[in-house]
Every structure is written in C-alpha cells, then in structure tokens.
Design a protein that fits this description.
The chain has about 240 residues and is an alpha/beta fold. The protein has one domain: TIM Barrel, CATH 3.20.20.70. About 35% of the residues lie in helices and about 20% in strands. It is built from eight helices and ten strands. Strands 1, 2, 3, 4, 5, 6, 7, 8, 9 and 10 form a ten-stranded mixed beta sheet that branches. The radius of gyration is 16 Å and the shape is globular. The two termini are about 25 Å apart.
Length: about 240
C-alpha cells in the first residue's frame, strides 16, 4: 500500500490516460490511487491496455465496477485484473473472497479486493449490494473477516448523508481487523472534511474515499487536477 496522508488516508480518482494520472497524482500530493471503471470500456482488451498504460505512472491501479457500483460487472473486472495485474479491484461482497482467491491462484502479485455494500439509512445495519439482504454490521464484518476480505466499500454514501453509518462501520471494521474502508458516492470538496474528520480518530490501516463525479470533466472524461488539489488543500489544512 502507498504512503498515506496522516498515516491513514488515500484517494481514488479516475484517470483517462497516463498523462492525466500523473497530473492527478501530483495534484493529490502522491496520496492517490488512480483507476478506471470497467463500463467505460467496450472490451477486456481495451481496459487491460489502459490499466497497463496507467501502470507506467504508478505501481497500483484500481479497477472499478462502474455504473454506480453495478454488480453485474464483477466478472468483467476480474477478467481485466487477470490480464493487467492492477493491485486494487472493486467487487460486490458476494464475489470478493472468490475473486481474491482466484487471482492469488493465478500467481499474480497479491491483489487488494474490496467488498461492496450499501448503506440502509439505519446505523448498525448494511445492505448487500447483490442480494439486497440487510445484515447487522457486526455480523457482516465477522463474516467478511472470516473470508479474508481486507477492505469494505460503502456506496452510495451520498456525500455525508450516511456519514454516521459510515463511521459506525469503520469503527467495527477496525476493531475486527479489517484493513480498510472505502466510501463512495457524492463525495466532493463540500463534504470531504466532515467525512475524514468523522473517522480521523479510528485506528484503521487505510481509509480511501472514491471521488469521481465531482472531479471529472464531463466533456473530456479527464479528472481535473485543480479539483483534486482543492480537496487536498482541505485535507492538508486539517
């Protein structure tokens, strides 16, 4: 895992190409894992080539599901990962452990596969993204830890709308040995301070917000370095 801000925080931004990745990482003071989302690409080959291109800039690239956490893309993400050795992949909870085991069995370097869940609107409960089942956080984390899942992704948190649920999840995950938590959905410069301050005192290895829509140029598809820098200035001023 990369060096982290305050020994805790990393940030995931989309990168259109290697040049965009380099600019975003510079704007993010290096605390950035650039990535792609699978549904931006028509083929496994095209996505694989893009990951390999981004790896000329950084040793870890994130492959997202896309489509707002579309769980049906889990196999596509896996196929891209097999061909490109990215380092970080997004999966629904139901396939995360299988995906990690499958990739480890292929002899690639160890991949960090997160497990996607959704907030419910009720502190202490989460919804499985695939089945829609609602489970108590403690029960869910016990299952995740027993399966060797290292990171939990909560999406969509809708900015700070589900912040109390996210904080509770992070506390339980940290207490039970989960390495990281990754929130996504509606995160921008207006709410990033509330989000990170909510978990600042929690002793967890990493906390990585995924910040996409608010930082992406809708015409070019590039992440805007100045938007990244705006977020980083807020972070570095805490």
């Amino acid at each position: 895992m990369k060096e982290k801000l305050y020994d805790k925080f990393l940030f995931n931004f989309i990168a259109r190409d290697a040049a965009n990745a380099a600019a975003v990482m510079e704007a993010g003071s290096g605390y950035v894992i650039p990535g792609i989302v699978s549904d931006n690409y028509d083929s496994i080959d095209a996505a694989t080539k893009k990951v390999i291109e981004l790896k000329t800039i950084t040793d870890m690239v994130s492959i997202g599901l896309g489509g707002g956490g579309k769980t049906a893309n889990c196999r596509k993400v896996l196929d891209i990962a097999v061909a490109s050795d990215p380092g970080h992949i997004n999966q629904p909870f139901e396939t995360a452990a299988y995906t990690k085991g499958f990739l480890d069995g292929k002899g690639t370097r160890k991949q960090l596969a997160n497990a996607l869940i959704q907030p419910t609107g009720e502190i202490g409960k989460i919804r499985l993204a695939n089945s829609g089942s609602i489970i108590k956080v403690e029960q869910f984390i016990d299952i995740a830890a027993s399966l060797g899942i290292e990171s939990i992704k909560m999406m969509p948190i809708k900015g700070n709308q589900h912040l109390d649920e996210l904080i509770y999840l992070t506390k339980v995950a940290a207490a039970k040995g989960i390495r990281g938590v990754e929130p996504a959905g509606g995160i921008d410069a207006s709410n990033i301070k509330d989000i990170v301050m909510g978990v600042m005192a929690i002793d967890i290895e990493f906390f990585m917000p995924h910040i996409f829509g608010s930082t992406i140029d809708k015409i070019t598809g590039e992440t805007i370095p100045s938007k990244v820098n705006e977020i980083m200035e807020i972070m570095e001023g805490l």
